[in-house]
Amino acid sequence: MVEYGLAKHAHVGEGESGDLHMVCCNQNGVLIAVIDGIGHGEEAAEVARTAAALLRSSADEPVISLVERCHEKLKGTRGVVLSVAFIAPEQKMLTWIGVGNVQGVLLRADPKNGNMQESLLLRAGVVGSKLPSLQASVLPVSQGDTIVFATDGIQGDFSTGLNAKENPQRAADRILNKFRNRKDDALVLVARLTGISP
Length: 198
Known about the structure:
six-stranded mixed β-sheet, 11 strands, alpha+beta, 3 helices, about 35% strand, globular, Phosphatase 2c, domain 1, about 200 residues, five-stranded antiparallel β-sheet
């Protein structure tokens, strides 16, 4: 249902990145998440893995419930920031939510279907520590639309010059190479929707 590309880089001097992605397909759709463990290194990676495992095991739940479950599970840890998207291909709908600073952008393949580019509304907070009031956004999607997630190791202006036709892996590599700020772990996930009927 999705074709995706991934590019990531650990913070200088760290053997492991605290930034993690998850793509999980089931009969209802596709759950995509990008998780950034607070800080970097092994402890950040461990808390990000805990969040990813919980998301994967509960992938059928609504995105708000998923974030709330992560928050409960991660209390007492350093916490994470994350953005989560669920694509329901039969309904041709994307539901997404972001807590913290994992940026999300939806690129439309066809301009007739709405704004060419939509940005995820992020709410300030830390999952596991300070959870804001949660509100998901719902957008219509079409075959060929592309979702891009980037952690805070990527400069915020990465969304300029995005192209829905670019190969997802090439796009992820290009964004990482051009926009990595070298102050933190960095991860870019580019996912093209391929399983939506016209």
